[in-house]
Recover the amino acids of this structure.
């Protein structure tokens, strides 16, 4: 028996999927046009009527929606059903600006949780598993999403939320958790804490981890897999579309299958808005196909990735997206150069450094300063200054090759950079640019 | 014959060194010799103690970043030219000195020079052919 939660959808033929998407899109567009004045005005301004959209081939006729539009519409501007039909809100952290609040009917919650259930089953999860969810619960979608998915699969769910690592470890060991769900940086931290407490990777019962909500690299995956003795699966999502589970990895670990029966993906050129063919790198755009409360038409995620429809050995026919190279929100512009923290992480991990680092950007006399504090591993310390400064120089050179600009690298003591229990804090931007 | 030195990473923040020395004091560790390397970014405290392995594990368990290194220790006369002769012998044999420090011994008129080279075995070989006396941890018992 293959690991599918909804095999009829997950292995559907391309023709049937397109037919399904076409039918759903027509209804979704009409629903949005009829109930959301904000969309109606924009479609009218572009001269597009719902009846012009007969299927996904007509999608390009619709205007894009950006994060700023969602912020402008806060809180009720994009709501497509009466508030009395909604049963839940979730919200973004609001660290990059005003919060985005998303609304859900019971139908929307079920749809979202089913997507998470697909991800858990793709990671080998069954009703016999003990699923430890240490994403934050509350407004953040991580905890509620995976919690709901775990229920749908029938796992014994440990609703730990984030933080209190000693308690996480105690429950993990005492109750024999087999699946771990959290941010990759917290998974690495739990792994380090287990090691420091004297546990070997084989001492825990974990088999799989489902990690997302922040960018991470292949090198970090290997680290986590080694520390915890598990297979680590990526999961992707955003509050605006529902939450985690928009796409998820199968055992092949070569990209995330998008739940395209609910979320139709496009890749566009971020500068021109032109739709790019499969295999091109560009900005990921999602259109919800059957959401009730908070539908999104052509929402620009700001994530840069590639779509692939190549046959997957897992048998799923759902289109795959590459791990986003980085969110454009995470992107720093330093001395005019685009810098993604994930690029820095790749260099560090390729060279055997820990993934605990802090980027510090400041502006002194109208010039950007760019410093990176990197934790040494205990065995990277040396009694000679020469060896340590040489390590710093080598890192500086490797980073310059990767980024095109020079960062000042400082090696710092192991465990001296503050750990995070949710999304890792990797950037300290002291420039007052806004 | 070597003497073991412990090196501790000191971040360039106020009170970092005091934390280490307080900790050593609390555990009654006597520092027989030491040096501190300082750069703009960080420092390295290097110490010679009576029970290096035990002190190392105490420091590690407390979370300090440290390492242990075999050092060459040579007894020399406390007079001009002693160090010059040693360093000359090493230089003539292409042995590179990373750092060195010295302390006087109980034996009057003598001092111990401790140094870190890039090749301990070669340094030992070269010094054995000179009149200098290599010392091990017994120098700490005097």
């Amino acid at each position: 028996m293959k690991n599918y939660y909804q095999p009829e959808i997950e292995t559907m033929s391309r023709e049937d999927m397109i037919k399904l998407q076409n039918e759903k899109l027509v209804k979704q567009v009409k629903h949005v046009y009829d109930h959301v004045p904000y969309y109606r005005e924009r479609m009218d301004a572009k001269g597009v009527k719902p009846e012009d959209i007969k299927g996904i081939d007509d999608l390009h006729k619709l205007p894009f929606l950006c994060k700023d539009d969602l912020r402008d519409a806060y809180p009720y501007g994009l709501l497509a059903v009466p508030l009395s039909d909604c049963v839940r809100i979730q919200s973004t952290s609001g660290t990059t600006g005003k919060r985005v609040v998303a609304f859900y009917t019971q139908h929307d919650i079920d749809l979202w949780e089913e997507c998470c259930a697909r991800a858990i089953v793709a990671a080998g999860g069954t009703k016999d598993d003990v699923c430890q969810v240490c994403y934050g619960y509350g407004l953040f979608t991580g905890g509620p999403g995976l919690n709901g998915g775990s229920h749908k699969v029938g796992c014994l769910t440990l609703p730990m939320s984030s933080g209190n690592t000693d308690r996480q470890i105690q429950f993990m060991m005492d109750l024999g958790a087999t699946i771990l769900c959290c941010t990759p940086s917290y998974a690495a931290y739990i792994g380090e804490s287990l090691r420091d407490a004297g546990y070997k990777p084989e001492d825990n019962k974990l088999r799989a981890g489902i990690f997302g909500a922040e960018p991470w690299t292949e090198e970090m995956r290997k680290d986590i897999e080694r520390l915890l003795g598990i297979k680590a699966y990526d999961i992707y999502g955003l509050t605006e579309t529902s939450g985690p589970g928009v796409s998820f990895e199968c055992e092949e670990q070569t990209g995330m299958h998008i739940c395209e029966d609910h979320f139709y993906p496009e890749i566009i050129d971020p500068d021109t808005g032109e739709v790019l063919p499969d295999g091109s790198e560009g900005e990921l755009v999602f259109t919800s196909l059957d959401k009730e409360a908070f539908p999104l038409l052509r929402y620009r995620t700001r994530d840069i990735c590639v779509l692939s429809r190549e046959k997957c050995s897992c048998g799923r026919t759902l289109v795959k997206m590459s791990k986003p190279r980085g969110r454009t929100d995470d992107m720093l512009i330093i001395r005019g150069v685009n810098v993604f923290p994930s690029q820095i992480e790749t260099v560090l991990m390729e060279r055997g450094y820990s993934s605990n680092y802090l980027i510090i950007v400041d502006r002194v006399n109208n010039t950007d300063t760019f410093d990176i504090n990197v934790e040494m591993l205990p065995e990277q310390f040396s009694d000679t200054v020469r060896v340590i400064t040489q390590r710093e120089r080598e890192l500086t050179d490797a980073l310059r090759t990767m980024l095109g600009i020079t960062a000042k690298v400082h090696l710092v003591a192991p465990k001296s950079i503050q750990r995070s229990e949710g999304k890792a804090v990797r950037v300290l931007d002291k420039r007052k640019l806004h | 014959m070597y003497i073991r030195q412990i090196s501790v990473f000191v971040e360039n923040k106020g009170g970092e060194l005091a934390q280490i020395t307080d900790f050593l004091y609390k555990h009654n560790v006597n520092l027989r010799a030491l040096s501190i390397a300082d750069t703009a970014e960080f420092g390295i405290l290097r110490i010679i103690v009576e029970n290096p392995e035990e002190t190392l594990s105490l420091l590690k368990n407390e979370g300090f970043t440290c390492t242990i290194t075999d050092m060459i220790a040579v007894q020399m006369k406390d007079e001009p030219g002693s160090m010059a002769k040693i360093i000359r012998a090493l230089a003539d044999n292409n042995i590179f000195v990373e750092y060195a420090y010295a302390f006087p011994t109980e034996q009057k008129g003598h001092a111990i020079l401790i140094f870190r080279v890039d090749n301990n075995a070669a340094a030992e070989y070269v010094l054995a052919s000179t009149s200098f006396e290599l010392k091990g941890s017994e120098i700490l018992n005097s």
